[in-house]
Amino acid sequence: MKLLVVDDSSTMRRIIKNTLARLGYKDILEGADGLEGWAQMDSNPDIEMLITDWNMPEMNGLELVKKVRADARFKDTPIIMVTTEGGKAEVITALKAGVNNYIVKPFTPQVLKEKLGAVMGISE
User: What are the record keywords, sorted (predicted)?
Assistant: First the structure.
């Protein structure tokens, strides 16, 4: 399964990628902002999951989600938003834009595992 991790923090990308690797995911692409994330999505239409930060330069995560959802190739691709924005209004905005699940930073590897399972229909 090919996953894309988009976050302007190289440390956060590394944490997410390491957690995904421990969970058995090996094919992981990354982007440092929404523009890089979109370039990865556009050139890799076989990406099966997008994990994106909200607050990033150039193109933020919400703009990326809207762009991904507007492309027929990705209308069913699961998207998890990872952000410090944990308010109810932000969560509702993200869900309306097409996010499948939401993780508030900081989070544990177990939370990431649970959210991945939830959007992919995998139970423990």
Answer: Chemotaxis, Flagellar rotation, Phosphoprotein
pTM above 0.85, yes or no: yes
How far is Cα 104 from Cα 106, in angstroms, rounded to an integer? 6
pLDDT tens by residue, 57-73: 999 999 999 999 999 99
Give the span between the Cα atoms of 26 and 42, in whole angstroms: 20
Domains held by the chain: number: 1
| Residue 79 belongs to domain with CATH number | 3.40.50.2300
Tell me how far apart the alpha carbons of residues 110 and 15 are, in angstroms, rounded to a whole number.
13
- Backbone φ and ψ for 75, nearest 5 degrees, come out as -60, -25
Helices 88-97 & 61-70 angle (0-180, nearest 10): 20
Residue 63 is part of which domain span?
2-118
